Amino acid sequence: MADMENERRISVVPDQASISGVSDFFDRCLEEFAVPLRIGYSVKVVTDEIYSNIVYYSGAKTAELLFRNDPERITLVFADDGKPYDPLEAKEPDITAGVEERKIGGLGLFMVKKMAESTQYEYTGGRNHLTVILSKTAKKKKMTLEDFDL
C-alpha cells in the first residue's frame, strides 16, 4: 500500500479552463518533493501531453490525477470517465520522415512512451487508467526532446 505522505491527488473537470490549474498542481508537487530538474522536465512533458489529450479528445466529464514520489521513481496516474482509449496502442509516428512529410499527431504519446520507465493502461469501472512511471535513478533518461529532430 502506498504511503500517503508521498502522494498527491487532484480531481478536475477536464476542460480548457482546467489546464493551467493542473499544470500548477504538478509544479507544486515537483517543488514540494524537491524532484530533480531533469525528472521534473519529463513530468511536465508527460502531464502536459496526457492531460491535454484527456481535455481535447476523451469527452470525459471528470478526471483524477495522481502524483507519487518514491525514492527511485515518480508515478503519474491519469484516470478519466471518457471514451475508452488505450494510448499505448497508438500508431507510432515515422520519426525518420522529414517534418514536412510527417503526419500530424502521435509524437507526444511517442515521447511519453520513450521517456517512461514503464507505462500501463486499463479500462475498468467505466474509466480509463493510464499509469506512467519515470525513473529517478536511471543514469540517462530513455529519451528527451533533444533526441528528436523537430
Task: Compose a concise summary of this entry.
The protein is of the alpha+beta class and 150 residues long. It has a single domain, classed as Heat Shock Protein 90 (2-Layer Sandwich), CATH 3.30.565.10.
The DSSP helix count reads 3
CATH architecture: 2-Layer Sandwich
Q: How far do the termini sit from each other?
A: 41 Å
Strand order of the largest sheet: 1-2-3-5-4
Number of strands: 5
Q: Which fold name is given in CATH as the topology? A: Heat Shock Protein 90
Q: Which band does the percent of strand residues land in?
A: 15-25%
Describe the structure.
- 30% of the residues lie in helices and 25% in strands.
- With 150 residues, it is α+β, with helices and mostly antiparallel strands.
- The protein has one domain: Heat Shock Protein 90, CATH 3.30.565.
- The chain has a five-stranded antiparallel β-sheet, covered by helices on one side.
- The protein is globular and about 35 Å long.
